[in-house]
Amino acid sequence: MKKTSIFIADDHPVFRGGLRTVLSAAGYEIAGEADSGLSALKAISSMKPDIAILDITMPDLDGIAVTRRVLEESPATRVIIFSMHADVNHPIEAFRAGALGYVLKDSEPGEILTAVGKVASGGKFASPAVTEDLLNDFVDVIKKEQSSDPFDTLSGREKEILTHIADGSTSKEIAEKLFISLSTVKSHRNNIMKKLKVNDMASLIKTAIKKGIVNSF
User: Fold this and answer.
1) What are phi and psi of 5, to 5 degrees?
2) Domains of the chain: which residue ranges?
3) pLDDT per residue over 148-181, tens digit each?
4) Choices 3.40.50.720, 3.40.50.2300, 3.40.50.1370, 3.30.200.20: CATH for 5-130
5) pTM for this structure?
6) Looking at the domain 146-210, which fold is it?
C-alpha cells in the first residue's frame, strides 16, 4: 500500500525536524521540505505530494498565497496550514484559500496526526481553540443580525481591541498584549471603524467612552 506523501514548508529548521520525526514515526512518507514560500511552491508543483503542510508566515510568499497557487498547479494536493495565529481571521483566510486543515504550532503530536489523518481521507480539521473562536464568531454574527446598534455588531475580540485603543495603547502594544500579529490588530481596527462609521481615532475613542467599555475587560 502506497504511503501518504507529505511536503513540509517552514522557515524554522527545528520545527521542520520535529514535524518530520512525528510524521515519519507514524508511517508517512516525507516527500520534501522547503524554508520559503517560493521554493515550496516550486517543489510541490513538481512533486505533487498528497499533503502539503505550510507555515502561514514564510519568506518570499506566505502560506495563504502558496495554498492558492498550489491548488492551481497541483489540485490533488491537500493543504494544511500550521500557524501560531489563533485569531479568527487567519484560519478563515486559510480555508477561503482552499486549505483543509488549520493547526496551531503549539499542538500536541496527537492533534497533528489527527489533522493529517482527517485531511488525508478528504476531511477537514481545525485545532480546538480555533474551532471555538470560529463558533463564537458565528454566534456573534447571529447576534449582530438581531441588533440595530452598530456597536453591537462588534465581535468580542473587536470590543477588546477597542478597549485597549481607548486606554491609549498603540497597535504594537495591543498586538503584544493579546499575542496576535500587528497586521491582525490593524485589520480589526479598520473593521471597528467601518462598523461604527467613524473616520478617525478621536471619534473611535469617544464612542468607546460613550459605551462605557473603557477598562471593562
Assistant:
1) -95, 140
2) 5-130, 146-210
3) 677 877 888 888 899 898 888 899 999 888 888 8
4) 3.40.50.2300
5) 0.63
6) Arc Repressor Mutant, subunit A (1.10.10)
